[in-house]
Amino acid sequence: MKVRLLCLVFLLTLWGISPAQSKMSESGKPGQAPAVQQPTRFLHLPEIVPDIHPADRATGKPAPWMNRPSRQENTSPPEYSRPARRAGSAMPAWQHLARLTPEERQNALIQMEASTDVAPEARAKLAEIEGLWNGGAFDQAVEQLRAFQTSQPEIDVAVGISWKTPRPVDLPAGSPTEGADVRIGTRENVQQVALDFDAGTGNLFVALLYFDPATNSDYWTVNISTDGGATWAETYLWASSYDMNDIDATVVGGYFYVAYIGLITQQEARIRRFMVADGSVDNTYGFHVIFSAAAAITDVALTANADFFNNRLYHLSILANGTLEYYWTSDAGDPWNHVGSSVTNAAGGLDAHTNEGFTTNYLVVSYRSTDNRVHVGLRSDPGSWTDVDLDAVDPLEEHTSIAAYQNRIMVVYKNSGGDLAYQVSYDEGANWYSGVIAQNILGWSPHLAGRHGGGFRVIYQEEAGTFDPLWTRHRDYGTGPGTAPWDGPTQFNEIDVFTGSPVNTEWIPPNVAPYDHGAVWIGGATFGAWFDRIEGTPPPPPNDDCANAIPVAVPSVTPGTTIGATVDSL
After folding, report:
1. Can you give the C-alpha Rg of the chain in angstroms?
2. How far is residue 516's CA from residue 510's CA, in Å, rounded to a whole number?
3. What is the span of the domain harbouring residue 308?
4. Helix, strand, or coil here: 109?
5. pTM, whole model, 2 decimals?
6. Phi, psi for residue 283 in degrees, rounded to 5
7. What is the pLDDT of residues 161-200, one digit of tens each?
8. Is 553 a domain residue?
9. Alpha carbons 47 and 557: distance in angstroms, whole number
10. What is the arrangement of strands in the sheet containing 41-44, beginning at the earlier edge strand?
11. What CATH number did the domain enclosing 428 receive?
12. Are 256 and 247 contacting, i.e. CB atoms less than 8 angstroms apart?
């Protein structure tokens, strides 16, 4: 029996599967055999067929957007850039605790965090400090943590603060609350946003990454809304003494997971999780190190199959050396299984999405390569990775975004001509068709949603001067080129967006309208986080006379106005 077991372990290792991984399938599909890793296929598609209406192709006439005058050259960089970090070290963890008000101290339970390779004695001391604070000895805990960090500065210490009573948004008098835009927290200088929801409770969650120039520190928070986004409360704050490159978050299996990066070298991929019922941290799970990287982790994407099997979590990341790493786990959150992508030229713009109703490819990924191309990665079940090189991108725009539903896949990005563009596949990535979402504007940061049968919805920014609008467009998934026209661009923000900053849109419950989505962005004078619901309308029916359609420019509009669009400007 022992010999048989050793032989089995040997074969699994030979096939590229760990013994833990062999017990469960990578896609989470019931009864599916474990994946066997195959070499990555790299596909280069230099010419993509335009996604135009069949009537256009039948007559040989080009789509309307192909006849438009040349756009003005767009070389202006966006407003967004990270505040400059001052020379010297960031605020240590003990100072984060020392700065809390008496009311905040009474409301805070803490958990100390350090690298997994810290000596047992040091870990025991941090646990002792936790106990002092959580027992009410706040000053003693701060002093002991100060002494610990002073004597052992080589240990990267972070602190997680769980609020006993979630902190609601308490805007000071005179704060901007115009229109439907809702402030998420009162903290300033947001750097990254991640939005998701739990289908069982209907609760919405947003994870926010901040940089505080005053303290030279990074920190992130978890925020919950139990009323569809009308109000928000902060349940958790995580603070470190080092710069953090990125975070992402998603819901699966009854938890809201937040992926972040540990160590001053940014070489540990870490994850925590929170209860979907109330947003409280799962201290039993604590934090897990997904992997330790050979180079700094610069970009993170986290996604899950919550909409169908609700039992798999997928973590992707880009390293400073260009490697695209991929790990997955079950809804238990451990162990994490490594899958090589063979991609070594990834530069940024990472996004990931699962494909509900998939035939073969259950996971899709988009990223920008070091030679300024947009790529799509397709992960099949079982076991192969296909990398598709689609188009040249604007080197000033770092963002790409991808979504998939029942084998329809779309990726949005800013192309080398300065247009906000997309590529769409109606057959799980076998064939691709190109189109344009917005031209002749200084557009930035497109983000795409495509879940729950709600069609494809894109949001994007325009650099327009004093006030910068956020636009949205929507279309059905379609069954082939030209079968799903876009509706007209609609501006939906009352609070100015900080152009070039990350944005996030997602299908969210309750599904009041057929196309009901939410959006989170960074804006206002203090670069806070804002939320709005986007109540869309069904797209217009296909126009069989696309060739004679008149191009419509984007005029100046008032907030909330829906304007016309060229039908099938795909």
Report:
1. 24
2. 8
3. 64-69+165-548
4. strand
5. 0.85
6. -70, -20
7. 999 999 988 665 545 444 579 999 989 999 999 999 999 9
8. no
9. 36
10. 41-44, 385-392, 373-380, 361-369, 346-354
11. 2.120.10.70
12. no
